């Protein structure tokens, strides 16, 4: 049940049972607020003690949620070619290349038909199109969808994914990069995706990892909570249990993208909660993004990736 933002300090535990394991009881994890844009509203994170699913309360309606996705939202990046400096363009190109190369390898096909759900401004889709794939996207943000259509000339629908959005059995690959945790009705979405994927088609989910070292260290300041935009945050076993229920077979987990940036955001949230002013936070962010710090932190991220303890994870599933 979706609601309006809560401006009281009264916790609101979930009224429904856990949709993954059926447990009716929830444990309060943290009180939380929007640390990304500092918009109003009090929220609480509740954890299912049986499977580890974390639920944000209250869950906002689509209408109430719109203000939490402004045009400068971090997931709406400009086209790679529009970056101001060569090193920014090179860094972005590397990130797009890694995502595209991984998606193509996991699909088992050189070319095919891909749908990116919640495609934002279409940067990943453009990379897939440049590699010979038929690229389609669907995006609820009016700004992001039109950017993808007009700036990158992509086939993107401005809408939420619905049962009649696409025909059955037509996609070789469906991707949700940092999107699945934003879904208020994930089971409904999984049913739709299962229907539109071809037999043996591949589903890629890029999600925050609550079993990460970052989550353990930053606690309520961890960037992966991102309330109220993240309706749910999933542990790997709970996620696979959910996907199996909807006809998907687990293939692999791979951590390889966005981990340095995710940690930088967590540091910023942590300093914000400690009362550091914006000037000091920006100074630290510039230092943390320097090439020297990037080089020094590589061993940490290497081991975190290898042990699936990075802030983000990409999980591959096959339609059965």
Q: Which structural class fits the helix and strand makeup?
A: alpha/beta
CATH class of the domain at 80-214 and 233-261 and 288-319: Alpha Beta
Largest beta sheet: strand ordering: 8-7-6-9-10-13-12
CATH superfamily of the domain at 80-214 and 233-261 and 288-319: Vaccinia Virus protein VP39
At the fold tier of CATH, the topology name of the domain at 80-214 and 233-261 and 288-319 is Rossmann fold
Number of H/I helices: 10
Q: Number of DSSP strands?
A: 13
Ranges where pLDDT stays below 50 over 5 or more residues in a row are none
Q: What is the CATH architecture assignment of the domain at 80-214 and 233-261 and 288-319?
A: 3-Layer(aba) Sandwich
N-to-C span: 31 Å
Helix % is 25-40%
Q: What shape does the CA trace take? A: globular
Describe the protein.
- The protein is globular, with a radius of gyration of 19 Å.
- The chain has a 7-stranded mixed β-sheet, with helices on both faces. Strands 2-3-4-11 form a 4-stranded antiparallel β-sheet, with no helix packed on it.
- Helix 2 (86-107) packs across helix 3 and helix 8 packs antiparallel against helix 9 (278-288).
- It has a domain at 80-214 and 233-261 and 288-319: Rossmann fold.
- The mean pLDDT is 93.
- With 320 residues, the chain is α/β, with parallel strands linked by helices.
- Helices cover 35% and strands 22% of the residues.
- The chain has helices at residues 62-65, 86-107, 123-130, 142-150, 186-196, 213-218, 236-245, 259-273, 278-288, 291-306, and strands at 2-3, 27-32, 43-47, 54-57, 59-60, 113-117, 134-139, 155-158, 171-177, 197-208, 232-233, 248-254, 312-319.
- It contains 10 helices and 13 strands.
